UniProtKB/TrEMBL annotation:
Membrane topology: Multi-pass membrane protein
Location(s) in or outside the cell: Cell membrane
Protein species of origin: Sphaerisporangium krabiense
Keywords of this entry: Cell membrane, Membrane, Transmembrane, Transmembrane helix, Transport
Coiled coil stretches, renumbered: none
GO BP terms, alphabetized: transmembrane transport
Main location class: membrane
Entry keyword annotation includes ATP-binding: no
InterPro entries for this protein: MetI-like (IPR000515), MetI-like_sf (IPR035906)
Family under the similarity heading: Belongs to the binding-protein-dependent transport system permease family.
Protein name: ABC-type glycerol-3-phosphate transport system permease component
ABC transmembrane type-1 domain: residues covered: 67-268
GO cellular component, one term: plasma membrane
Amino acid sequence: MGKTLSPLVRAFVWLWVVSNVLLFVWIAFTSLKSSGEVFGSPFKLPASPRWPNYESAWSVSEMGQGFFNSVVIVTTASVTTIVLAAPTAYMLTRSGTRTAGPLTTFFAVGMGIPIQAMIVPVFILMQKISMTFNDAFGWWDDRISLSAIYVATSLPFAIFLLTSFFRTLPTEIEEAAALDGAGGARIFAQIMLPLAQPGLITAFILTVISLWNETLLALMLITDTEQYTLPQALLGLYQTMQYTSNWGGLFAGVIIVILPIIAVYIWLSRRIMEGMTLGAGK
């Protein structure tokens, strides 16, 4: 890093990192203060930590249900995204057809389309799907719609990332396996997927991080409070805290939302960096 980045860029990166760490620490300390301390002494340590703020944030806006919904929706969408993206990226990398390049470019272009530009057609499409299933089976769950849209919006990045990663893997191993009689599906499942594990983990974690804090699509597609995701529950907590003036509880809700992602990133940060470095090595 020291040889590739100029001192000015390194200083900017460290400034950005330090500012984010300080902001997180400030929010964590503020979550343990009373409302009077939040406004009266915003930059001092809490006089007496108020742990009930977390209990209040968890129970007032049903953040427990929101946490469960977010875990199920994000995990389902992220796993589905990787299951679909891995064979697609492998085929684009190894097929050697004329359409492989344009298709890869097509997915790269898909990353640049803002979700705001698709929100109206997505809403109409999901409404039609919901009405169709309700008419046919008398049941539909909007969390399924949200998961499907999450998969569709996450696929371009996952395919683009995994395509770059599969290009770094040597072809000699596949050629040797083919000489031993292994078919394409067996080579992919038993040889290439284990080799691509760092890239798969990186794509999975980055997908989880991007979906965990997503709010716009959730607000558009989910109206039942029992199906709210964690960011929606946090918005409900914000509206509630405006009337109760429990600002420490609001900051405790923010910590509840961001802490799982920070914990997962710290746990798998080495794998993420390995995957991104290997993917960019060629």
